[in-house]
Amino acid sequence: QREKVDIHKVIAEALDICSIKAKKRGVEIFYKKEKELPSVYGQKQNLTQVIINIINNSIEAGEKEQPYVKIKTDHDLKLKEVLIRIEDNGEGIEQDNLQRLSEPFFTTKDNKGGTGLGLSLVSKIVQSHNGRISFQSEKTKGTIVTIVLPAIFD
């Protein structure tokens, strides 16, 4: 069932779930909210699952000094879109692997218990919400995941 969803509530719920893992690993999380963020139309539980998966991946990537995850929300009035950006300063992803991140069973964490299903599922959920997801990364310099979803303007 689709409904009007407040992305700030989705992120807050995801942060509640991920905060213990972040604390255990010494990863600091920063969250910069766009004050006037429009809602999106979708399934709150699925969108929360998307954010949890990406935050957890960012936490797991934080293997350097002072690891962090930065979350920022924004919107584009012209394009009628909500943007969610999740950035980490972790180990980064090889350029050859970036295009494959959404493939089922592809993982860069096979020696750490990765199944390759997380980002595949995340991509499918975002697409089912008429959105898109992109990955930017540089080895040893971290990763930025951007999710763009259609906005609802009342």
Topology:
Blueprint lengths: L2 E3 L1 H19 L2 E5 L6 E4 L1 H18 L6 E9 L4 E8 L6 H4 L19 H11 L3 E7 L3 E11 L2
Parallel strand pairs: 2-4
Antiparallel strand pairs: 1-3, 3-7, 4-5, 5-7, 6-7
Helix pairs in contact: 1-2, 2-4
Characterize this entry briefly.
The protein has 154 residues and is of the alpha+beta class. Helices cover 34% and strands 31% of the residues. It has 4 helices and 7 strands, in the order E-H-E-E-H-E-E-H-H-E-E.
Describe it for me?
This protein has 154 residues and is an alpha+beta fold. It contains four helices and seven strands; from the N terminus they run βαββαββααββ. Strands 1, 2, 3, 4, 5, 6 and 7 form a seven-stranded mixed beta sheet that branches. A hairpin with a 3-residue loop joins strand 6 (132-138) and strand 7 (142-152). The mean pLDDT is 89.
Largest sheet: 7 strands, mixed
Helix content estimate: 25-40%
Contiguous uncertain segments of 5+ residues: none
Tell how many strands the DSSP assignment holds.
7
What would the principal axes of the Cα set say about the shape?
Answer: globular
Q: How do the helices and strands follow one another from N- to C-terminus?
A: EHEEHEEHHEE
- β-sheet strand percentage: 25-35%
Over the alpha carbons, how many angstroms does the gyration radius reach? 15 Å
Helix/strand/pairing class, anyone? Answer: alpha+beta
Number of helices: 4
- What's the pLDDT, averaged over the residues? 89
| Cα distance spanning the termini | 20 Å
Question: What are the defining features of this structure?
Answer:
154 residues; alpha+beta; 31% strand
